[in-house]
């Protein structure tokens, strides 16, 4: 019997067609992950990613913690991105990331991750690290909006 109440992913998931977000990935079939399990995986990755990014941001304001900030912030962003793989499939997500409509956003996002590390660990520059984190955030937002029909026209 399905749990009742406001946090019932089975009943909420019934409103989403199986083909829209859960197209199926061979990894899901191989691992036997249900729709609910995939929603939990997405929620867990999103939450962990947010907490890691938040902790990294807090460390930015402590002296001498630039490297920790960069590592935690970028790790949080990547974990959140991995979480979306639970929704559409990991291999499908990789294919979609490099479609013409979002390839530029993807490349800027990936380059900004590398540049955050370079600014933090090689150059030891707080200002450049923050600038590249802002670029990373904007590229990630652009990448996310590319999945919404007609969002690029706004």
TrEMBL record:
Cellular-component GO terms for this entry: Golgi membrane
Location(s) in or outside the cell: Golgi apparatus membrane; Membrane
UniProt keyword Lipid metabolism, yes or no: no
Membrane topology: Multi-pass membrane protein
Residue ranges crossing the lipid bilayer per the database entry: 39-62, 68-91, 103-123, 129-150
InterPro entries: Vesicle_transpt_Got1/SFT2, Vesicle_transpt_SFT2
Keyword line: Golgi apparatus, Membrane, Protein transport, Transmembrane, Transmembrane helix, Transport
Source domain of life: Eukaryota
GO terms, biological process: protein transport; vesicle-mediated transport
Main location: Golgi
Keyword Transmembrane among record annotations: yes
Pfam family, one: Got1
Family: Belongs to the SFT2 family.
Function summary: Nonessential protein required for the fusion of transport vesicles derived from the endocytic pathway with the Golgi complex.
PANTHER family recorded: VESICLE TRANSPORT PROTEIN (PTHR23137:SF6), VESICLE TRANSPORT PROTEIN-RELATED (PTHR23137)
Protein's UniProt name: Protein transport protein SFT2
Native species: Schizophyllum amplum
């Amino acid at each position: 019997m399905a749990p009742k109440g406001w946090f019932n992913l089975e009943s909420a998931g019934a409103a989403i067609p199986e083909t829209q977000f859960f197209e199926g990935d061979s990894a899901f079939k191989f691992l036997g992950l249900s729709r609910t399990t995939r929603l939990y995986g997405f929620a867990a990755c999103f939450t962990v990613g947010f907490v890691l990014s938040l902790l990294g941001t807090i460390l930015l304001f402590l002296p001498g913690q630039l490297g920790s900030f960069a590592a935690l912030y970028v790790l949080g962003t990547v974990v959140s991105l991995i979480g979306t793989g639970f929704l559409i499939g990991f291999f499908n997500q990789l294919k979609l990331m490099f479609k013409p409509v979002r390839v530029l956003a993807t490349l800027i996002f990936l380059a900004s991750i590398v540049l955050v590390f370079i600014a933090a660990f090689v150059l030891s520059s707080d200002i450049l690290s923050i600038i590249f984190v802002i670029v990373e955030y904007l590229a990630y937002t652009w990448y996310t909006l590319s999945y919404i029909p007609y969002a690029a026209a706004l």
